[in-house]
Design goal:
single chain, mainly alpha, elongated, Alpha-1,4 glucan phosphorylase, glycogen phosphorylase activity, Glyco_trans_35
């Protein structure tokens, strides 16, 4: 997630307009009121559990 946020901040996804996603970066980095960043590790962990459960159900 750190790399993704840095790429948003640095204009990687919009080189022709590097500040295009500035508001998204600022929202996530400084005002994460929906706790998207704070809860990301838990989200990834649970997503992996879901993947494993799906694989087991397919066997």
């Amino acid at each position: 997630m750190k790399l993704c946020l840095e790429q948003i901040r640095d204009g990687f996804f919009s080189p022709e307009n590097p500040h295009l996603f500035k508001d998204i970066y600022n929202s996530l980095a400084f005002d994460d009121r929906f706790l998207l960043c704070a809860d990301y590790a838990s989200y990834i962990r649970v997503q992996q559990e879901v993947e494993e459960a799906y694989k087991v159900s397919q066997n």
